[in-house]
Amino acid sequence: REQLVESGGGAVQSGGSLRLSCTASGFYFSRYCLTWFRQRPGQEREGVAAINYGDDASTYADSVEGRFTISQDNAKDTLYLQMNSLKPEDTAMYYCAADDLRKIYGVWRCPAEYTYWGQGTQVTVSS
User: Fold this and answer.
1) Cα Rg, the chain, nearest whole Å
2) 104-119: pLDDT as tens digits
3) DSSP-H helix ranges across 4-106
């Protein structure tokens, strides 16, 4: 059974850093796209960063480009999101999601396209 479990959220001050982790189990990963989403209070879920499990190709939302880095440890089946220079507007629930790369290609920002989701981890950035 496929499962994603996030960890690493917390509260930090503006300018600080956090690293989120998402451990996966039950997947055949060579064809999957792994994506971090976030959902701010009262807003829709938005794609933050995505990575192809097979070749490490990655992409970012403009709002986090240069501050966040997505990576993966294939040996541990773990996805990471290193978040630096955090801003209060980064405050949100962060989720990892996964689905077949062939399905997600070109639509990685669209949460409705993903089948598998973690439970989320809260990130709070104070000014």
Assistant:
1) 13
2) 888 899 999 999 999 9
3) 101-104
Mean of all residue pLDDT scores within the chain = 93
Question: Is the confidence at residue 29, as pLDDT, over 60?
Answer: no
**Mean per-residue pLDDT, 74-81:** 90
Cβ-defined contacts of 55-59 (< 8 Å, 24+): 59/108
3-class DSSP string for 3-22: EEEEECCEEEECCCCEEEEE
Contact, 26 vs 3, CB < 8 A?
yes
Q: Which residues contact 82 (CB under 8 A, 6 or more apart)?
A: 17, 19, 68, 69, 70, 71
Long-range pairs for 54-62 at CB < 8 Å and ≥24 separation? 54/29, 54/30, 54/101, 59/108, 61/109
CA distance 125 to 67: 14
